[in-house]
Amino acid sequence: MSLNHTDQMHILKDILTNHQDDCSGTVAECEQMERLVKSLMVNSNVDQDIKTLLTDIYSYSQQGKYTQHLDAHINEHQDQLSQWISEIDQFS
Asked: Which Pfam families does the UniProt record give (predicted)?
């Protein structure tokens, strides 16, 4: 069963919320966010206005995947995480 873009946005929001709440995460979560964002970026059903947000989340995921201190990376992005979660809520 494939996920539609709404399901993908919910999963993306869940991962971001976990990063925000727990101030920690895993490389696997960063990789999952990358896959979700890539899929959403090519989906014509996704609002063009959210694609900038998705680009920012993709960059965050890439940086997180390659950092040696993922928890510190997540802590440094707490404000952005809050903003992204709020923006996803507006589009969902």
From this structure: YtzH (PF14165)
Phi-psi region of 23 (alpha: psi -120 to 50; beta: other; left: phi over 0): left
Contact at 8 Å (CB) between 53 and 84? yes
Write the pLDDT tens digit of every residue in 47-89.
888 999 999 999 999 999 999 999 999 999 999 999 999 999 9
HEC per residue, the chain: CCCCHHHHHHHHHHHHHHHHHHCCCCHHHHHHHHHHHHHHHCCCCCCHHHHHHHHHHHHHHHHHHHCCCHHHHHHHCHHHHHHHHHHHHHHC
pTM of the model: 0.94
